[in-house]
Amino acid sequence: MSAVAFVLFCISLSSTLEAMSRVQFLEHASVTHETVYLGDIARITGPQGDTLMKLPLGAAPLPGRSHYRDTSSIIADLFLPKDLHDSIIFSGSSRVRLSHRADTIYAQEILPVLTEILQDSLTRSGSGEYEVVVEENHVRSYFLISKGSEYSLSIRQIPSTGQGERRRVTFTSVSGEYTEDFSVQFGIVRWDTVAVADRDFSPGETITPDAVTWQRKKVSSLSSSPVLQSDFSRGLESRSRISSGSVLTEGRVRAAPHVRRGDVVELVYGGQALQLTMRARARQNGYVGDIIQVENMQSQKIISARITDTGRVELTQGGRS
Question: Which CATH number among 1.10.8, 3.30.110, 3.90.1210, 1.10.760 corresponds to the domain 198-255?
């Protein structure tokens, strides 16, 4: 692909991706077929001829050998897959004719970054917001990508100072007999709505839903995944001390035991034909499937029992009641 064609493809796809955040259920859209120049404003129109957005053509200079004297007009075509779930996504095709006035061709640096993200980070993760930090020629640009599902994406530019996870990607463009390599550094900062502790928690303390607030935070730097709202359905407890204002993660909390030391539980023993139940006091914490020591509250004997449910244990083979 020639350098000029690469630029056209970048500009075309970049404009299309930006339109994705503004258009719902769009089946076709295109850039005006008139000849435009770098720095001009191109118009993206919908199927009824309505203007969806205006696109400024131009970006940071391409590093390396970036001066060309080819003044011919080039047509770039772009085809995107139709959205399978009719969510917020752009589909159809766009077409733009581009000429340049001067001898400098500009590169749209965000396209390779977004392509890399779509193929890597977003495909391996769930919904969330990702702050993209693009650095080229010591100039940084910041974009926010919101991913709602596998088929939903929106992009907008934002002011930011975030760094995120640093990567380096090399892209190659070809012009005549010359092959040009240039590098783009970028970072990704993921945002998500997470549970934040409203107070301090001691190790082993129960964490209830009313003891946290849900806030939008940067989660890229967390050492483990943040907990979900569904995790509170069974109960959570702290693994270690948690300070007020800390994000609750899988490394800081764990599921609350089904049976805690000191709990009065239902002790079941006997066969399938006849089962007897009595009360016992747990002498250990445990989860379903664990064998713990319990005290028969009637005979005061210590026996072994397997946890079968919350507050319920079953006498194990060899255990004595």
Answer: 3.90.1210
Look-up: residue for tokens 């599902």?
A: 149
Kindly state the tokens that stand for 218: 């940067």
The CATH architecture to which 264-315 belongs is Roll (2.30)
**Considering only CA atoms, which of 180, 244, 235 is closest in space to residue 212?**
244
Segments of the chain assigned to CATH 2.30.30.760: 264-315
> How confident is the model over 49-61, as pLDDT tens digits?
444 333 333 332 3
Amino acid identity, position 219: V
* Top-confidence residue, 3 or 237: 237
Q: Are strands 30-31 and 264-270 parallel, antiparallel or unpaired?
A: unpaired
Q: What is the pLDDT of residues 240-296, one digit of tens each?
A: 999 999 999 888 998 888 888 888 988 888 766 677 888 999 998 888 888 999 988
Q: CA 198 → CA 158, 181, 314, distances in Å?
A: 30, 51, 38
Q: What is the pLDDT of residue 200?
A: 94
In which residue are the tokens 């990702």 written?
Answer: 130
Spell out a b/e string for 159-170, using b for 16 or more CB atoms within 10 Å of the CB, else e. ebebebeeeeee
